[in-house]
Amino acid sequence: MRDAITLLLLFSLWQALYGDQQKKITITDSGYTYTFIFTSSLPKEAILHYLFDSVQLQNHSNKTSSSRIIHDYGDYHDVELYLRYLVYSSRSTYRRTMLADSGVVKIEMLQFNHNSTFLPRVKRSYAEYRLIENRESVTVRYIQNVSFDKPVNWFYMKILESKLHEFADTMVEYFEKLEIK
Questions:
Q1: Strand order in the sheet with 31-40
Q2: pLDDT per residue over 26-78, tens digit each?
Q3: Cα–Cα distance for residue pair 178/11, rounded to 1 Å
Q4: What Cα–Cα distance (Å) separates residue 138 from each residue in 12, 121, 178?
Q5: pTM of the model
Q6: Angle CA 57–60–63, to nearest 5
Q7: Backbone φ, ψ for residue 153 (5° rounding)
């Protein structure tokens, strides 16, 4: 009985510190899978719009140096992202596809280039937002799978993990601000 009470107290502490947000990274020799989950009181259709719309993309992806739509086909569009950090820069193209009936936004990398010879090159990147309607909220589940062309060292992965958590936190803050409006 005491163990059950301890577990309940630990769970309550976790909820108080982190709310409904959950983040997890699984690292392999050739890449990683990153997942985060949060809830929003906004309607499902509004969340899908904010996750898919490229103008909104710039709002909740504040670490992107620049982004632009290359092609807009309605339910999907190709977006070019440019990132710059000190001496590192990369340019990538992603196809963002809206599957509104399923509550899914898929993001698939089409092209990747960067200026580094010692950092790994991204071979494949696939992500999706999957929305699940609950009684009074919508659960948003984000999952990203990335594979590299060579093994990644521990230090690089720690930096990457920090950037991914920052991305998740920025996303949650963005939706919290939208809920207040």
A1: 22-28, 31-40, 138-148, 122-133, 104-114, 88-99, 76-85, 66-72
A2: 988 889 999 999 999 999 999 999 998 866 666 555 555 788 889 988 899 99
A3: 28
A4: 21, 35, 14
A5: 0.81
A6: 95
A7: -80, 165
Query: Which amino acid would we find at residue 76?
Result: Y
169: tokens are 């936190």
The pair of structure tokens assigned to 82 is 């440019």
Q: Is the dihedral of CA 125, 164, 106, 76 positive or negative?
A: negative
What Rg, from alpha-carbon coordinates, does the chain have? 18
User: Which residue, chain included where needed, has tokens 């290359």?
Assistant: 70
Cα dihedral sign for 81, 85, 86, 91? negative
Could you tell me where the DSSP H helices lie in 25-141? 44-52, 54-60
